[in-house]
């Protein structure tokens, strides 16, 4: 496969088995978009394939969009695929739950809070207002409930630890940015292998949550600011950034990665974010982000 810097690549990643007919259809769609397929290369037989091409990335991405109901697809330059900064949301991205909803379950008000969470993730509510309203409902919950919730319910999303360990093996930095809370985020930093974090702080008075959030809110703008700050501190070119999230509060962060020439990924995301991303993961776990970076399974760091 040609590796010239002017070459672009479309990567197809199947949840189960990638049919050869789908690969042929993808190559036909490239030609229909005015792009010339140069060749293809299997990362893993019947699972993940690169199709190299010369042509316009945006046109090819649009042409391949109808195939996203069957496979995950990312289209990008063939150069600089391995990213040096991963900036990720936490809830429903790196872990399987929404922490505030699970805390609310211990207080017996999960349904009430989960409805607000869902609307905020869809972009229907102002994030800060929705966060403060939900936290107010948790007033009086004992602080030990946080640790209990972490121990009993916080679990990594499939592929999260492999993604972090593999990227860190080539020197990449992992930043976990969350509209959630520092106790949960610090625990997940350790579980998944992130290098740094930014999150909100629950107000606590004595042994009980006081229904407030301390300090400035980590919202969509702050997530994007954290991305830019980390990239600058690390001295990285913008195209070496990968951002991942699942809800409307991640839009500005994902757009920041895309605008710099990197990958802005939406992981099993709400439409508000998926429509803004340049890689919507609908069929796979987080290891799809390794295939997207041109990493074979034999190079993954496991365990």
Identify the notable features of this structure and list them briefly:
single chain; 303 residues; alpha/beta; Alpha-Beta Plaits; 7-stranded mixed beta sheet; 4-stranded antiparallel beta sheet; 12 helices; 11 strands; elongated; disordered N terminus
Assess the beta-strand content as a share of residues: 15-25%
- CA-based gyration radius: 20 Å
CATH architecture classification name of the domain at 1-79: 2-Layer Sandwich
Number of helices: 12
Q: According to CATH, what is the class of the domain at 1-79?
A: Alpha Beta
Identify the CATH homologous superfamily of the domain at 1-79. ACT domain
CATH topology heading of the domain at 1-79: Alpha-Beta Plaits
Helix content: 25-40%
Please report the total strand number as a whole number.
Answer: 11
Give the end-to-end Cα distance, rounded to a whole number of Å: 32 Å
Largest sheet: 7 strands, mixed
Give the overall shape, derived from the CA principal axes.
elongated
Describe this structure in words.
- With 303 residues, the chain is α/β, with parallel strands linked by helices.
- Helix 3 crosses helix 6 (144-153) and helix 4 (110-121) packs antiparallel against helix 5.
- It has helices at residues 20-32, 57-64, 99-106, 110-121, 127-137, 144-153, 160-169, 182-192, 220-234, 251-259, 271-274, 288-292; strands at residues 8-13, 36-44, 48-54, 72-77, 85-88, 173-181, 196-205, 208-214, 241-245, 263-267, 279-281.
- The protein has 12 helices and 11 strands.
- A 7-stranded mixed sheet has the order 8-7-6-5-9-10-11.
- It has a domain at 1-79: ACT domain (Alpha-Beta Plaits).
- It starts with 7 loop residues before the first strand and ends in an 11-residue tail after the last helix.
- The model is unreliable at 1-5 (pLDDT under 50).
- It is elongated, with a radius of gyration of 20 Å.
């Amino acid at each position: 496969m040609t590796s010239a810097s002017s070459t672009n690549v479309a990567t197809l990643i199947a949840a189960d088995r990638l049919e050869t007919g789908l690969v042929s259809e993808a190559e036909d769609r490239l030609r229909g978009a005015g792009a010339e397929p140069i060749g293809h290369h299997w990362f893993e037989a019947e699972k993940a394939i690169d199709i190299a091409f010369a042509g316009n990335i945006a046109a090819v991405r649009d042409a391949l969009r109808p195939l996203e109901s069957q496979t995950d697809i990312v289209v990008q330059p063939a150069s600089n695929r391995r990213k040096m900064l991963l900036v990720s949301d936490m809830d429903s991205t790196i872990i399987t739950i929404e922490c505030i909803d699970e805390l609310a379950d211990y207080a017996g008000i999960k349904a009430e809070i989960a409805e607000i969470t869902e609307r905020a993730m869809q972009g229907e509510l102002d994030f800060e207002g929705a966060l403060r309203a939900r936290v107010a409902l948790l007033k009086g919950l004992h602080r030990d409930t946080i640790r209990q919730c972490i121990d009993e319910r916080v679990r990594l999303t499939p592929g999260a630890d492999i993604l972090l360990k593999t990227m860190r093996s080539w020197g990449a930095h992992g930043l976990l940015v969350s509209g959630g809370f520092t106790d949960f985020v610090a625990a997940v930093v350790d579980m998944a292998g992130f290098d740094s974090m930014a999150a909100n702080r629950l107000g606590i008075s004595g042994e009980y949550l006081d229904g407030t959030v301390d300090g400035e809110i980590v919202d969509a703008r702050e997530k994007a600011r954290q991305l830019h700050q980390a990239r600058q501190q690390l001295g990285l070119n913008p195209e070496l950034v990968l951002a991942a999230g699942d809800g409307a509060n991640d839009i500005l962060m994902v757009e920041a990665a895309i605008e710099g020439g990197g990958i802005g990924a939406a992981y099993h995301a709400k439409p508000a974010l998926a429509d803004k991303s340049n890689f919507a993961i609908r069929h796979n776990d987080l290891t799809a982000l390794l295939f997207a970076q041109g990493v074979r399974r034999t190079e993954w760091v496991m365990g």
